[in-house]
Design a protein that fits this description.
heterodimer; A: about 110 residues; mainly beta; seven-stranded mixed beta sheet; four-stranded antiparallel beta sheet; 11 strands; B: about 110 residues; six-stranded mixed beta sheet; five-stranded antiparallel beta sheet; about 0% helix
């Protein structure tokens, strides 16, 4: 079982470039999430999708967009990358909207120069 | 208020010691309090979770103590081992917050042989 798979694992962008982080889960989970992790800040929710066809903003949505492509896949797009978006990004999924075990991917380390 | 405050930021103990990590929350609507463990280069993984109807939960060497009136909860690791060296995150969630999890800032634990 792969669980939650994120691609790419590492990425370096120049300021102003765009990119899409991909996430897929094979556990038939309804809900999916994107977090960013910064030193001393814990994990902060960027966007989430309670179910296929819905997306909502989290704590820090500015500068990001998301797409719930189908039940398995949830992508995060940076339209114009900024140095402040240098972070480690984690995708997670749960069987339903939280209050149950969240399964995390391995993370994407993004550096914006 | 949606914040979860976690302390200490880092902790060093000797093998066999009992590290204690503390978290405090403000939103009384929270009803789910998980702890996640993260090893370097990996995504967080659920360690243990508690709901406010009990004051303590044990799973193996890991214990959560919960004080509803003080709005605090803590993680105790009995007979700590070098393999427990990791970053630990507390979190809180509840229906009032749309079921989303709010994470603490993280504690980097090092267990010395």
């Amino acid at each position: 079982n792969a669980g939650v798979t994120q691609t790419p694992k590492f990425q370096v962008l120049k300021t102003g470039q765009s990119m899409t982080l991909q996430c897929a889960q094979d556990m038939n989970h309804n809900s999916m999430y994107w977090y960013r992790q910064d030193p001393g800040m814990g994990l902060r929710l960027i966007y989430y999708s309670a179910s296929e066809g819905t997306t909502d903003k989290g704590e820090v949505p500015n500068g990001y967009n998301v797409s719930r492509l189908n039940k398995r896949e949830f992508s995060l797009r940076l339209e114009s990358a900024a140095p402040s978006q240098t972070s480690v990004y984690f995708c997670a999924s749960t069987a339903e909207l939280m209050n149950t075990e969240a399964f995390f991917g391995q993370g994407t380390r993004l550096t914006v120069v | 208020q949606q914040q979860v405050k976690q302390s200490p930021q880092s902790l060093i103990v000797q093998k066999g010691g009992i590290p204690i990590i503390n978290c405090a929350y403000e939103n009384t609507a929270f009803d789910y309090f998980p702890w996640y463990q993260q090893f370097p280069g990996k995504g967080p993984a659920l360690l243990i979770a508690i709901r406010p109807d009990v004051s303590e939960k044990k799973e193996g060497r890991f214990t959560i103590s919960f004080n509803k009136s003080a709005k605090q909860f803590s993680l105790h690791i009995m007979d700590s081992q070098p393999g427990d060296s990791a970053t630990y995150f507390c979190a809180a969630g509840g229906v009032d917050g749309g079921g989303k999890l709010i994470f603490g800032q993280g504690t980097e634990l090092s267990v010395k042989p």
